[in-house]
Amino acid sequence: MTERKQKYHPRTQLVHGGTTRSQFGELSEAMYLTQGFAYDSAEQAEARFISCPDNEFIYARYGNPTVRMFEDRIAMLEGAEAAFATASGMAAVNAALTAPLKAGDHVVAAKALFGSCLYILEDILPRFGVEVTFVDGTDLGAWEKALRADTKIVFFESVANPTLEMIDVEAVCKLAHDVNATVVVDNVFATPVLSRMLERGADVVVYSATKHIDGQGRCLGGVILGSREFVRGTCETYLKHTGGSMSPFNAWVMLKGLETMDLRVRAQADNAMQIASALQGHEKLETVIYPGLADHPQHDLCKAQMQAGGTVIALVLKGGQAEAFRMLNALDIVTISNNLGDAKSLVTHPSTTTHQRLSDEQRAELGIGDGLVRLSIGLEDAGDLIQDLKNALSAV
To answer: Of 203, 225, 257, which closes a domain?
Structure first.
């Protein structure tokens, strides 16, 4: 059944992929809220600990039937051999970076990253003897110069948070593979609906399922996708012993989220394009940053690499933090929150929230000024959102 579903359109796979049913033939996926599993005999328990088949389980930290359905479905969508679901997006990033590395290894990463990703790369990995080199992700020459024979991992966000700069995935993967480095891509902003990273040469893809996969602000979750060797060998061993696995309840919520993700993401991206176009040139804004707009520095790359410009817009207000706060506080529909990918439109001020731990110099280098706000566009009527944003800008 699973092999047959591989031929279907992603929207069909998101509804039916990876489903397994019990003897009761339930239509909606079953939620297996259990910590452990019973064995028919001591011999069976021994055998399962030696070699556990995909359809058998030992302990919920190692795997669970509901979690496995989510892993199989998202792997089918991404075109990956395997997936491991984690407790959060950062658990996925941490495992994908930490599990394969040891003291003396070298990592090259784009410097434009989410604050918690920077914390792992700047603070945690160097404590254990891993050397990390940061580069301008849009500069292929910088990547080529930084990569070395001992580079083990290359890491970047396909679309950077919150500045929305885009990286040429295929070009960076080629450079990394020339030195036998493993490429790990955080594809949260692009989503597997708009761009599949494995098809573009990446070895490993990570997602915060908290964002578009859930898409309705309910649960935390993450997932690592890639080869069976990397996911079920390197990462699973690390995760099952350190405890970063996803709960069955959250996996069930994510399964329900996957059913509508294609519809939601495309509708949100359509809204985002309309809103970015409507706000472009507004007198209160220095600039509107959106990959779908022709003036975005990587617009041509966006057209080649993604099916749409994504669901997130960055606005840079004239006047800095004070004016940004006035705008945020004047919004009626759009909600102030540091999440993204939700059915509800959300806005945040990165320099005082998601990236506040960075120094002033780091934020300036990344282009995260005091006037920058990040808009995650939801499913509301585009006209209502445009009016709400214009009304808020009039208060600036």
So the answer is: 257
